[in-house]
Known about the structure:
Order of helices and strands: HHHHHH
Structural class: mainly alpha
InterPro entries: DUF6526
Pfam family, one: DUF6526
Transmembrane segments: 12-33, 48-67
Keywords: Membrane, Transmembrane, Transmembrane helix
Amino acid sequence: MPSSSPTNRPTVRWYVPHHFILLPAALVMAFYAGRRYAAIAGTDDNNARLWFCVAAGAVIVLGMLIMMRQHYALTLQDRIIRLEMRQRYFEITRDSFQPFEQQLTFKQIAALRYASDAELPGLLQAAIREKLSPAAIQERIDHVVPDKMRV
Length: 151
């Protein structure tokens, strides 16, 4: 009898408007307009200009849809880094990280995440007090904790 243990595959999540409406429509439109333009390319009439503009617009929309997806992933990654730092700081000090978070830029928070647990509270205070740049924060880290799970 086969075992019913869960697999280690990630769950695929579909966003219907993006995956099944906008992206396919943009692909079809880009392909169709490109074919129409290719059939009349070289002629100097309004029809050729129209299909060129439609094809160019469809390609631009398709590119924007793909870039939006990347932007969403990066925004989510930034939120996860903030949550990771809140949790880690709380586990180390039993204090909330949120008051400090208001005084730091995201790049400073991202730089602080590479500090060891022993260094983090002191380096956080120094970053706020001295307004350290992300590069300066990284230079002061003696024991770097690498991020081996970054995508």
